[in-house]
Write a structure and sequence with these properties.
- This protein is mainly alpha-helical.
- The protein has one domain.
- 87% of the residues lie in helices and 0% in strands.
- The chain has 1 helix and no strands.
- The radius of gyration is 16 Å and the shape is rod-shaped.
């Protein structure tokens, strides 16, 4: 029971981190595309 709970929490944290990373990368790419940041 405890192991299942821990595994779910770990999965939730990793999933949230990946979603946040994906959002950040998408925003960065859109910003560079529209603003034209110097590469």
């Amino acid at each position: 029971m405890f192991y299942g709970c821990f595994r779910w929490v770990l999965f939730y944290q990793v999933g949230g981190f990946l979603v946040g990373l994906c959002k950040g990368l998408t925003i960065k790419l859109l910003y560079m595309h529209y603003i034209g940041a110097p590469s």
